[in-house]
Amino acid sequence: MSRVEEILVPDIGDFQDIPIIEIAVSPGDSVMAEDSLVTLESDKATMDVPSPATGVVKEMKVNLGDMVSQGTLILTLEVNDAGVAAQPAAEEEPATPPSPAAPAAAPD
Question: CATH code for 2-80?
Fold first, then answer.
């Protein structure tokens, strides 16, 4: 089952009307959690707005050069509930342990 989430500009401090200087995704693009969606530029720094979830970009709600503030709608993202639930579990799996024969290869 999938759902569509509205992705908003997160808390960016006391900044208001920050321009979008880069758009990293387009409708139809697949994104992973933490992938950059847009880049904002204030007087003091540039900030990437990351995707909060894995999904597919459905619709862009902003354009290059638009001025945004905290809470501005950036895009809609189709999120697969099953994929999101499975993703953290996959990341937590331990790496394959080395074989017991590996330490025996040490020089005499």
Answer: 2.40.50.100
